[in-house]
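Researcher: I'm preparing a figure for a lab meeting and need a structural model of a single chain. I don't have an experimental structure, so a prediction will have to do for now. The sequence is pasted below. Please return the structure as tokens so I can convert it later.
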Amino acid sequence: MTIRESFEQQEKEYLSPYAALSINSKGRQKPEEQCDIRPVFQRDRDRIIHCKAFRRLKDKTQVFLTPEGDHYRTRLTHTLEVSQNARTIAKALRLNEELVEAIALGHDLGHTPFGHAGERALNRVCPLGFEHNVQSVRTVDRLEKDGQGLNLTWEVRDGILNHQTVGTPHTLEGKIVQLSDKIAYIHHDMDDALRAGILRESDVPESIREVIGSTTGERLDHFIHDIVTNSMGKNDICMSEPVAEAMRQMRRFMFERVYQNPVAKSEESKAEALMETLYLHFMNHIDTLPDEFKRFIDEGDPREQVVCDYVGAMTDRYAISVYEEIYIPKSWAL
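Model: Understood. Here is the structure written out token by token.
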């Protein structure tokens, strides 16, 4: 028996009957030889951590564009917080932690620079549309490893694709990530807004604080405990209705006070204009795309999609640098 097979046997003996077992995976798009040490979901997790798109998350906006401070979240730290929340829940429910972690670490790989402002811009200007969850799947399927993709399992790809509110994950592990994503951004966006002076703790409505707590830490703890308590022994991942309603109220509050706040979002129109400008520039100058992207067009991918692939994959800093290189005059020098 290999080390991998012993791990698979441990999963069968220990995990919940509702867990997604590594040995029962629906497999990969391209069949490949099994690792003798790592079960398939652990292998997927490792591939995601080592891919270029994961490293770029460190320079992509979460909510606050290019903030003056070291402690504001980035897309990478958001991803790590989603992963930690999800693993805590999965471990308590005896579900597959490695599947949960792989989905969580991969769920935002296709996100644009400048957060949802960049996503809105590409969705508006590209006739094919642009959704970061779909782009995350394209990233792992097509763009990584010089066009070979990461060849992830069906369960991980399903969780990545369906992590947004409108999605319907087919595993409980995917459902955990879907909820953990919301919990994470409600928690850390509130924390960042307090740090930025956009909000005060006393601004949070009393009806919310009475149910889930009066600090960001209390609320995070309450969300996770409520999910574990209400999902224990069930073939579902759910919250109690009072806590679910408090989450809905908290999201509405955050949209009103932070996500649509003209102070917090004052630079987003510039970011959207920059993204649209870069998209239109490369659509009109396809020959200036890097060779690795031009190859996708040669292989039959739509030009509009490939330009989105390139512009959407940029970090905030690189997008600004490319824009300056194209449109900002340089000082003349010998």
